[in-house]
Amino acid sequence: MDLAFIIALDVLNGAASLVLLCLGLAIIFGMMRVINLAHGEFVMLGAYATVISANAGLNIWIAMLVVAPLFVGVVGIVIERCLIRFLYGRLVDTMLATWGLSLLIVGLVTTLYGNTIKGVPTPLGGFSVGAYKSSYYTLFLAAVALVMLALVYVVMRRTRFGLVARATMQNPGMAATLGVNPSRIYMMSFGIGAAITGLAGGLLAPVSGVVPTMGAAYVAKAFITVVGGGSAILAGTASASGLFGLINQLGSYFTTPVFGEVILFISAIILIRILPQGISGRFFKGSL
Amino acid sequence: MTRFAGRPLLNWAALAAAVAALIAVPEFVEIFTLMQFTLFAAMGVLALSLGFIWGYGGILSFGQTAFFGLGGYAYAVSVINLGDSTGAIGIAIALPAVFAAILGYFVFYGRISDVYLGVITLTVTLILFNVVNATAGDEYRIGAAALGGFNGMPSVPTFNMPGNPSMVLDPTQGWYATGGALIFVYVALRLLLRSPFGRIAVAVRENEVRASLLGYDPRLIKLGVFVVGGAVAGLGGALYVNWGAFVSPTIFALSLSAEIIIWVTVGGLGTLIGPVVGCFMIQYLDSQIGTQQTFNSNLALGAILIVFVLLLPQGLIPTLRTLAGRAIAAPSRTAAKTTVAERPAEARQ
């Protein structure tokens, strides 16, 4: 019983991390059809922002929840203005340029801070269930993931910006005719996507190894989750994260963590083959 | 391509120059430089494989290293078991080709679009990396060959004379074999592109619907291109393992996948010589950057890729060709203009 509870917690943790990791990518991919291969490096930048400001004496919570998203959001807007906006509609070129960008960021961070950096301890304590131990931080991650999903839903459905953004997503030409500036909407959406990714990086900083190349571990996972989820930003991300989180954790439990990942990747490939439109293309048509 | 197909003499001259360079190089350079050139040539084969499937088949594979790595491991495992590199090289070509056929069937016959193809090839490479990385320990061995997990397989026997395991090639002969393989693959791909299959492949790249309306099956053609690419990459893997006598899971690494794409982008998509030129240049640059400590090679590679995508999206070779074409065409065009100006009445008719 205790074991089942702990495994359930692990699954929750896996799904929550995936939601946090993918939401920003889903917004950028879903809104602009831009595949951002520097996504993993945005996560890394968020983690670095957190670690550096926390080590400089800032409160860890402020470092994670405020500094990381703000910093990466600004970086995202700068990148959109200097690079991405010249490449809209050229899918392959965007992938190449963002891949170049990811190498550039890794190189830059390595040059500035070297190959390792002092990490931050995991805040909040642990609790035990029978013979097993878990940490409150897991529950906190899950809560933040839920809040982020709710927040994106409210912004997209209930605010003027959300309405304009959804209109631009559906038909940029028509939106421009009605007086919207699509270029500005793209810039802001990219910034928001980057900020959410930075937040994910900040939140994952205490529980993962913070090194310049850490992004590579995330980009493929985030990528397949977004593609597996399909075009609906929220329903797709949430369902694919849940499914893949479950598969990954159960696979890791019954075999080894390495083969858990392998099982995750294989099931993702099969999913893409069966549902080329993603989960939301089949089951949640028309949802957000 | 077509422009140069009409100039067989020039092609023969270029081929002769390449062979002459292959033979002459060991006379002029130190052994260390020769080994470096051998590495460049092995990587050049890998560059050709992506240049072929991406430039002529329109298939952007983010995981060409999957076939490269499979070829490397297939060579290492079979040469340890067979004791003779002749058959091992054949296996190193055949196994990735079969793997490409299975993966390609899955992808192309599932009508999965381009972006998803990139995702799937990337994912497959990661799977291979993870699986091979986890094979440390004595229970993971194929015949006499222990896979070694993340430690890799040390002291893999290098190439020997065909059919004669006791005659191991020395570095100079290794250079001849590797450089010769590069030239051979280049020529073979050029010939393949001139065959009906190559022409149909280019037609499919240009317009899949039109090609299928003309009665060709784009899925089959793309699968064929993908398999050829896989086989060539596998050969590259065998050459690479022969160069270092060592293979480890980093052969599947994403950074290498990224680097191949940079070679092709820099050299020029849609040519065969471009990827090889790009490969040589970037690798030379990489080795030069490695000799100093001030900045990181990732930084330079990333900046180069961004600059090329934004400012020179065609790549070096096509741009040079356009410039050369313009330089040749310019005088004749001025001549044509004056004739038109002199005879305005005729020109208008």
Tell me about this structure.
The complex is a heterodimer of chains A (288) and B (349). By secondary structure, chain A is mainly alpha-helical. Chain A has helices at 2-32, 39-55, 60-82, 91-113, 136-158, 160-170, 172-177, 182-204, 215-229, 233-254, 257-274, 279-282, and strands spanning 126-129, 132-135. Chain A has one domain (2-215). Chain A has a two-stranded antiparallel ribbon. Chain B is mainly α and 349 residues long. Chain B has 2 domains: 2-252, no CATH class; 256-349, no CATH class. The model of chain B is unreliable at 1-5 and 338-349 (pLDDT under 50). In chain B, helix 5 packs antiparallel against helix 10 (218-244) and helix 11 (254-267) packs across helix 12 (273-290). At the A-B interface, helix 4, helix 9 and helix 11 of A face helix 6, helix 11 and helix 13 of B.
Topology:
The complex is a heterodimer of chains A (288) and B (349).
Chain A (H helix, E strand, L loop, with lengths): L1 H31 L6 H17 L4 H23 L8 H23 L12 E4 L2 E4 H23 L1 H11 L1 H6 L4 H23 L10 H15 L3 H22 L2 H18 L4 H4 L6
Antiparallel strand pairs in A: 1-2
Helix pairs in contact in A: 1-5, 1-8, 1-9, 1-10, 2-3, 2-8, 2-9, 3-8, 5-6, 9-10, 9-11, 10-11
Chain B lengths: L1 H4 L2 H21 L2 H25 L8 H19 L2 H24 L5 H20 L7 E2 L2 E2 L13 E2 L2 E5 L2 H24 L1 H11 L1 H6 L4 H27 L9 H14 L5 H18 L6 H15 L4 H27 L1 H5 L1
Antiparallel strand pairs in B: 1-2, 3-4
Helix pairs in contact in B: 2-7, 3-7, 3-10, 3-11, 3-12, 4-5, 4-10, 5-10, 7-8, 8-10, 11-12, 11-13
